[in-house]
Amino acid sequence: MTNRLMLLPFLVLFAALFRLTASAQRLDTSPISMSQDTLHLTLDSAENMFLRQNLSLLAQRYNIDAQKALIIQARLYANPNFTVEHGLYNTETKKFFPVGSTGETSAGLSQLIYLAGKRNKQIKIAKANARLSEYEFYDLLRTLKFTLRDDFYNIYYLQQSAKTYEEEIRSLQVVVNAFDEQKGKGYISEKEAIRIKAQLYSLKSEYKDLLEQIEDQQSEMRLVLQVKPVYIDPLVNTESVASLSPIKYPLATLLDSAYNRRSDLMIARANTDISKLNYNYQKALAVPDITLNVAYDQQGSYIKNYNAAGLGIDLPVFNRNQGNIKSAKAMIDFNTATQKSAEATVEEQVFRGVQKTLAADKLYQNIDASFSKDFQRLMHEVLINYQKRNITMLDFLDFYDSYKQNTLQLNTIQYSRIKAFEELNFVTGTNFFN
């Protein structure tokens, strides 16, 4: 009878673990149970959806169209000006709007002629602004695409971590339920039951924080994709990710791509070009324009039916556009310095990106591929030894916690590695590693 009583707690635990195995087969394996629909996406399909639906990109495209329309406006010539004047009241004949020999009508036609190539300079500035808007579009595209890809992989690896939490919570919950059934019968130590419950509550708290983190990433990705509230399930080609190599491209190739493809660097160069064009335009504005005109006057001049031709020009005595010219010259220096700073930043970012990628890949490659599988196999052996009373419950929990920490660390290492590759794509302006 005594031996049976001693074996009873372990029979209870064995039954609990048996129910754990059965319930694990019935439970949903998705990391999070969501009420909304699930959208399963590969990276390519996510990028295609992003290009079609993102409203920020759409708005920037409209801005490009608006800037191109200004090129049309810059090509237009100034409109001619026509004036006509007729006498209102003749004080001698006492008639309103007199006509004929007693009336007076005058008319004039004038045309503004731009000098110093102002029109061509305006066209060049408008074209440069249109190119700048295109570079801004590509820079927005580059930034949003990086956000999308980073969220895609971050969500995936966070989901893998969530599965680990679910597995451990599910295991401990079944054991706690079994302990609760035997509460007050003296088979299970109260201290041991409290210890397991404390561990379970701690795991649930950590799991909740992880779910919040996943939801934050989900929200950001939904905004980038411009989709209604759905749960996004990233489908990652792990073999393709594992095959990425940071030594595939030399540093010189990456730097050359960054110098030629980085849209933010193109923006800096475009601003420098625009400031130079504006300087030339401001100097041209110092040259006054000519107004050509022809006029007719019925009888208001020294002869009847007076005809005349003339021209008008401002005399640059006081305003020679000195302030705008000086400001434009200063903007050249400002944008030139900004461009050089951007070039130095690009070079450093590429160099640092290569360093980070090499370090992250080295850490990943040093991980024993069978380590995780060995841990899972050992977990089974630990369970058997626990059933045979070769180890205590606390030893079992400690090993299970080690398994959790190992899995979380592996997921973090893998995410850090793929993020390093994505950052290298971002700083070079090219999807070298895809």
TrEMBL record:
Family per similarity comment: Belongs to the outer membrane factor (OMF) (TC 1.B.17) family.
Keywords: Coiled coil, Signal
Superkingdom, natural source: Bacteria
Record's keyword annotation contains Repressor: no
SUPFAM superfamilies: Outer membrane efflux proteins (OEP)
GO molecular function: efflux transmembrane transporter activity
Full protein name: Cobalt-zinc-cadmium efflux system outer membrane protein
Coiled coil ranges: 162-220
InterPro entries: MdtP/NodT-like, OMP_efflux
Signal peptide span: 1-24
